[in-house]
Amino acid sequence: MKKIGRPCVKQCISCPICDKEFSVHRYRLKTGKQICCSNSCKYKLITLNGTTTNKCIQCNEKFQFTKGRNVDRPIANKYCSQHCYNIGRNKSGMIPYRILAFENFPHHCHFCNFDSGMLDVHHIDEDRTNNQLANLVILCRSCHAKLHSLGS
Length: 152
What we know:
The chain is α+β, with helices and mostly antiparallel strands. It has helices at residues 26-31, 39-49, 74-77, 82-89, 97-104, 141-151; strands spanning 10-14, 21-25, 51-55, 62-66, 119-123, 136-140.
C-alpha cells in the first residue's frame, strides 16, 4: 500500500553530548529544536551552556537567565521578572490589583500595622472589578477576616 502525503525528510546528525548518531526531521533543525538525542542529553547541554540572554515578551527588555531543568517554566525564559509575568498573565492588559496596591501603599496592615507574613488586598466596596487605588487597602489576614465577618 502506498503512503499518501508529503515524504518524511530526515537528516542524520550526531548528539553534541554523547556523539550518538540519530535522525531528525529537517524542519526541527531549522527551528533549533531537538539537537540532542534524548532529554537527558538536552538537560546536560542546557547545564553546560549556563546562562542565556532573552527578550521579555511583556516589556521587551533584554534579560539573562540560567538554564536548568525547569527551562520550560514561563517565567524562567519569557519574562524578565515576576511583575512582567503577572501583567502578561492578565488577559485584560490592566495591572493586577495586588501589584497596584503594593506599589502604591506601605507594606503593612492599614488597621494594626502588622508587617510580616501574608498581607491581603481588600476591595473597600467589595467589588473585585473596581481596582481603583481609592478602593484598595492592604490588610493582614486577621483584620481582613474580621472585616468580612462584620459584613455578613
